[in-house]
Design brief:
It contains eleven helices and 21 strands. By secondary structure, it is α+β, with helices and mostly antiparallel strands. InterPro entries: Restrct_endonuc_typeI_TRD, Restrct_endonuc_typeI_TRD_sf, Type-I_RS_S_subunit.
C-alpha cells in the first residue's frame, strides 16, 4: 500500500557533499590514486550513469595540500552552477573520488538506496529552482527542501532494478549506434573516394578518384532553388514549413512543426517547387546539414535552406554532400565571425566526384542500408528514453506499485 511510503524532505535522508577547489596547477595528472571529476567529465559516454573515467587524477599529497574531501562510492553528483546545471545531468561515483566546486554531491542515509536517490534526482528539473542572477545556481537549502516519497527499502530496490534494466538497454543501443556510425563513416569515405571494385585511379583537383569518374561543379549537374532570406507568416495549420531547424544530419526532423496558410503557398513558393527526393542544404546555423526530401505532399521552405535538384542520382548526391571531403570544403569556404555561412554563388562552384550512373545507384543503396539500420536503432533509443521517463513518473510516485515477492521483502 502507498501508506507504507514516507513523505519527507530530501535533507532528512541524505548528507550534503561539498566539492573542492581544483587550481590549474593540480590538473592534468594521469594515473593518480583518486579520480578528480569536473562537470565536463559527465559528458564522457563511459560516464553515462556511473563515473568511471576522469580527465584528472590526484594522489594523497595533492589531496592534503588542497585540503580536499574524498567522497565515498555511491555518492550521487550533479552540476550546481552555470549552464551545465540546466542540463539536469545526474551521475553516481563508482569508487572513492573527488569533484570540484561546480558539482554538488548527495550521500544516501540508511533509509534510501543510492540508486533510488539517483533516479529520484533525475525527476527534478533544477531550472525551476535556480537562484536569480546572471549565472544559474542552486544551493543546499534548495536541495534539502525537495519533497520525496520514500517507499520501503525492498521496494526501492525493485524500482531501481527495473529502471536500471532500461538504462542497460539504452546503453547497449547507444553502443550499437556509435559502432554503426563509425562503420558508416569509414564506408562513406571508401565508397566516395575509391568507388566499387576499381584498381586504377587518377589525381584531380579534389583528390584521387577512380579513372572512370569525372569531376563536376554542382552548378553543372544541379538546379538550385534558394529559399534563404525573409520568413513567411506562420499559422497554426496549413502547409508544412521546412526550415534549417528541421534539417538534421541526414534526415528531416518533425521538430519544430510549423505551417503557412494554404492560400499563401503559391505567392511564397515563387522561386521553384521542390520535388520528392530533392537534396536539402542548410547554408548557416547550422552550416552544411544535408537531408533528402521524403515528404510527398506540398511543403514550403524558408530560412537558410537551398534545395538542390541534381541531374545525377539524388541519393548519391545526398551522400556526397554528407561526405567528409565536401564538408571540409564548405567549411573552408564559409564566412562569418559569429555564425559561419556560405553563399549560394560559392556553393555552386564546389566540385564533387561523379561516377557512372549505375555506380552512383549502387553506392547510394549501400549507404542507405546502413542509414536504415542507424535510423532503426535511433528510433529504438528514443522509445527507451520515453519508456524510462514514463516509468520514473509512475514508479517513483507510487502511482504504479511493483510486485515484490516475500523472499525479497524479508531481506
Amino acid at each position: 500500500m502507498v501508506s507504507e511510503w514516507k513523505n519527507c524532505l530530501l535533507g532528512e535522508v541524505v548528507e550534503y557533499a561539498n566539492g573542492s577547489s581544483f587550481p590549474n596547477e593540480f590538473q592534468g595528472k594521469k594515473n593518480g590514486k583518486y579520480d578528480f571529476y569536473k562537470v565536463s567529465d559527465m559528458n564522457n559516454p563511459k560516464n553515462s550513469v556511473f563515473m568511471i573515467e576522469a580527465e584528472n587524477t590526484v594522489d594523497d599529497e595533492a589531496v592534503a595540500e588542497l585540503k580536499a574531501k574524498i567522497h565515498p562510492k555511491d555518492t550521487v553528483i550533479f552540476p550546481k552552477v552555470g549552464a551545465a546545471l540546466l542540463t539536469n545531468k545526474r551521475r553516481i561515483l563508482s569508487k572513492p573520488s573527488l569533484f570540484d566546486n561546480n558539482i554538488m554531491g548527495l550521500k544516501a542515509k540508511k533509509s534510501i538506496l543510492p540508486k533510488y536517490l539517483y533516479y529520484f534526482m533525475y525527476t527534478i528539473d533544477f531550472g525551476k529552482f535556480v537562484q536569480s542572477g546572471a549565472v544559474p545556481s542552486i544551493n543546499k537549502t534548495i536541495v534539502d527542501n525537495l519533497s520525496i516519497k520514500l517507499p520501503p527499502l525492498f521496494e526501492q530496490r525493485k524500482i531501481a532494478a527495473i529502471l536500471s534494466s532500461v538504462d542497460e538497454a539504452i546503453e547497449k543501443t547507444e553502443v550499437i549506434i556509435e559502432q554503426t556510425e563509425k562503420v558508416k563513416k569509414g564506408l562513406m569515405q571508401q565508397l566516395l573516394t575509391k568507388g566499387i571494385g576499381h584498381t586504377k585511379f587518377k589525381k584531380t583537383e579534389i583528390g584521387e578518384i577512380p579513372e572512370e569518374w569525372e569531376v563536376k561543379a554542382l552548378e553543372n549537374i544541379s538546379k538550385f532553388i534558394d529559399y534563404r532570406g525573409k520568413t513567411p507568416k506562420k499559422t497554426e495549420r496549413g502547409i508544412r514549413l521546412i526550415t534549417a531547424k528541421n534539417i538534421r544530419d541526414g534526415y528531416i526532423s518533425d521538430e519544430p512543426i510549423e505551417f503557412i496558410a494554404e492560400e499563401d503557398y503559391d505567392s511564397w513558393m515563387t522561386r521553384g517547387i521542390p520535388e520528392y527526393g530533392d537534396v536539402l542544404f542548410t547554408t548557416e546555423a547550422p552550416l552544411g546539414n544535408i537531408a533528402q526530401l521524403n515528404i510527398r505532399e506540398k511543403v514550403a521552405f524558408a530560412q537558410r535552406v537551398i534545395i538542390i535538384q541534381p541531374i545525377i542520382d539524388k541519393r548519391f548526391m545526398k551522400y556526397v554532400l554528407m561526405g567528409e571531403r565536401f564538408q571540409n570544403e564548405i567549411e573552408s569556404l564559409s564566412t562569418g565571425s559569429t555564425v559561419k555561412g556560405i553563399k549560394s554563388s560559392v556553393l555552386k562552384k564546389v566540385k564533387i566526384p561523379v561516377p557512372p550512373l549505375e555506380e552512383q545507384r549502387r553506392i547510394g543503396a549501400i549507404l542507405e542500408s546502413f542509414e536504415g539500420k542507424l535510423l532503426t536503432e535511433k528510433q529504438k533509443l528514443e522509445r527507451l528514453k520515453f519508456i524510462k521517463i514514463g516509468l520514473m513518473q509512475v514508479l517513483l510516485t507510487g502511482k504504479v506499485r511493483v510486485k515484490v515477492d516475500d523472499e525479497v521483502m524479508s531481506q
